């Protein structure tokens, strides 16, 4: 009440204070206007309170300095935003106790993994192998027509991994192939990482991948980064040198990006690496992992049900959607080379001063 009355004048102050102290204050006021009215009239009114100094705007706090990791060991893979072992009520496996425990067990293996140690092998169940087989069989029928062929990127890299519909690939084996092809490696993770941590990992040529399988009741599509999405969608493209270099450049740009830039860079990654499409002749073909790893999404893209928009990496990009089903808008590259050049040019605008130690670690020296 006192703060509200500063500079309001004595009369106003009396009116506001009286109710605050109740009936006793009213009685005191009555005595002052009774027999002693003359004395009260002779008294000089108190001077109005001095106005309070104008509030000064709070000084804008300087943003916290960006902590640049000097090695992969300093990239945190433990801050999980979602899509881990804790399933939401709308997840198809929420009421499946066996599946939920399976997710817990596999995610715990990722949490205990140490850099430099072999990635633990998962003994996938027959039910999980069936999901893998269903997705892989459907996708292999769609790839020749709808996966990008430009410079043979996706289809050329696919045979390097000798995928079989009867066996879910192991991350350790895939990592070895990538290291020979482009120098990338795989690090297991329990779910969806914070954007900064995930992108920082790419700077050290490391792709963070889950190992759990989507629920058997929904093989066609899942918003989760499950092992099908990671292995079929991301891994083959990371074996292409030009594509791997592009992803690496995005990672390097993330090391010195501020929070606003990280958010925009995450959207750029989402609409290219995850859901990118490219023109080939008169057709639009997929190269994004979210399209290539979902036969439902791939069919949706091929059916011209979504809006196609030219990509401008410097322009504001719409909100990303994890759980709203198939994409309603794809951003199109006119060619992979042109899009890659645009992305790399944007990434260079984010480069700030970086210690030589870090520059050497990410291959800039």
Helix content range: 40-55%
CATH architecture of the largest domain: Orthogonal Bundle
- Main sheet attributes: strand count, strand direction, barrel closure: 4 strands, mixed
Low-confidence stretches: 1-43
Model description:
- The protein folds into two domains: 41 residues, no CATH class; 290 residues, Orthogonal Bundle (Phenylalanine Hydroxylase), CATH 1.10.800.
- It has 365 residues and is an alpha/beta fold.
- Strands 6-5-8-7 form a four-stranded mixed β-sheet. Strands 1-3 form a two-stranded antiparallel sheet. Strands 2-4 form a two-stranded parallel ribbon.
- The termini are far apart.
- The N terminus is likely disordered.
Keywords:
single chain; 365 residues; alpha/beta; four-stranded mixed sheet; 16 helices; 46% helix
Describe the SSE topology:
Layout: H1 2-5, H2 10-21, H3 23-32, H4 37-42, E1 80-82, H5 97-111, H6 126-146, H7 153-157, H8 171-181, E2 185-188, E3 192-193, H9 195-203, E4 206-209, H10 227-238, H11 241-255, H12 259-274, E5 277-280, E6 283-286, H13 289-292, H14 295-302, E7 307-310, E8 329-333, H15 336-349, H16 356-361
Parallel strand pairs: 2-4, 5-8, 7-8
Antiparallel strand pairs: 1-3, 5-6
Helix pairs in contact: 6-14, 9-11, 11-12, 11-15
């Amino acid at each position: 009440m006192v703060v509200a009355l500063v500079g309001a004048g004595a009369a106003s102050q009396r009116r506001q204070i009286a109710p605050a102290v109740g009936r006793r204050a009213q009685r005191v006021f009555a005595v002052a206007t009774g027999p002693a009215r003359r004395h009260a009239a002779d008294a000089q009114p108190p001077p109005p309170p001095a106005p309070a100094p104008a509030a000064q705007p709070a000084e804008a706090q300087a943003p916290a300095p960006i902590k640049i990791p000097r090695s992969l060991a300093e990239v945190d893979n433990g801050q999980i935003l979602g899509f881990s072992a804790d399933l939401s009520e709308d997840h198809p496996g929420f009421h499946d106790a066996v599946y939920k425990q399976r997710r817990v067990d596999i995610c715990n293996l990722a949490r205990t993994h140490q850099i430099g140690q072999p990635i633990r092998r998962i003994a996938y169940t027959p039910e999980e192998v069936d999901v893998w087989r269903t997705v892989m069989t459907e996708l292999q029928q769609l790839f020749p027509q709808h996966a990008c062929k430009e410079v043979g990127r996706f289809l050329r890299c696919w045979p390097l991994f000798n995928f079989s519909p009867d066996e879910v690939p192991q991350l350790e084996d895939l990592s070895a192939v990538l290291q020979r092809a482009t120098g990338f490696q795989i690090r297991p993770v329990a779910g969806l990482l914070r954007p900064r941590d995930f992108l920082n990992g790419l700077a050290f040529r490391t792709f963070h991948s889950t190992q759990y399988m989507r629920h058997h009741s929904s093989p066609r599509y899942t918003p989760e980064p499950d092992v099908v999405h990671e292995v079929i969608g991301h891994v083959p493209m990371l074996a292409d040198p030009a594509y791997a270099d592009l992803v690496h450049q995005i990672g390097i740009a993330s090391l010195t990006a501020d929070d606003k830039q990280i958010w925009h860079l995450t959207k750029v990654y989402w609409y290219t690496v995850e859901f990118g499409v490219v023109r080939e002749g008169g057709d639009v073909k997929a190269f994004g992992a979210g399209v290539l790893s979902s036969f439902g999404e791939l069919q949706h893209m091929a059916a011209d049900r979504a809006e196609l928009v030219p990509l401008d990496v410097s322009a504001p990009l719409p909100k990303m959607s994890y759980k709203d089903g198939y994409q309603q808008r794809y951003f199109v590259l006119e060619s992979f080379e042109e899009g890659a050049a645009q992305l790399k040019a944007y990434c260079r605008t984010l480069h700030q001063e970086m210690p030589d130690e870090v520059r050497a670690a990410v291959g800039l020296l």
